[in-house]
Automatic annotation (TrEMBL):
<dbReference type="InterPro" id="IPR037171">
    <property type="entry name" value="NagB/RpiA_transferase-like"/>
</dbReference>
<protein>
    <recommendedName>
        <fullName>LUD domain-containing protein</fullName>
    </recommendedName>
</protein>
<dbReference type="InterPro" id="IPR024185">
    <property type="entry name" value="FTHF_cligase-like_sf"/>
</dbReference>
<dbReference type="Pfam" id="PF02589">
    <property type="entry name" value="LUD_dom"/>
</dbReference>
<feature type="domain" description="LUD">
    <location>
        <begin position="63"/>
        <end position="166"/>
    </location>
</feature>
<dbReference type="InterPro" id="IPR003741">
    <property type="entry name" value="LUD_dom"/>
</dbReference>
Amino acid sequence: MMPAAVETFERSLENLPVTFERVKSGAFQSAVESCIDPPAVGVPLPFDEVSLEESPVTLDPTSEDILEARTGVTPGGPSIAEYGTIVVTSAFDGSGYTSLFPKTHVVVVAASEIVETIDDALKILVEEIDDGLTSAYLTTGPSATADMGAPVYGAHGPESLHVIILGDC
């Protein structure tokens, strides 16, 4: 990860209808809790230094939990600096549903997984596909449509997106 990629990513996010913050691992718990509108669901995070275990997030949610949730918390990455785009994988852990059904999606990305271009991200995804990844989507802000005039958020997914950038850069 290059600090420049993180800065470019943040500048890209500033131009989108999202909120974001960069936090060190010690501040993660309060950052994630400040974004949650209960009830919240999530999937385990793949980062050694942080966890959702102590947060008010239901891990390993049932279908009913997901349908009732107002907030979904998932990991994301790689993230594409030039667009402010985040790859969210959809695995058997429920991360796809957890990120798409609740009104608010909180996505946690590692600063070390922010890359400059979509080509850089695709190189990483090819490796993950070779390792068994079968589904992922790219998100650049909340779900939106403008086919009838002004943008409407939440038409096909979350109405709001909050990005937590985890890292010490």
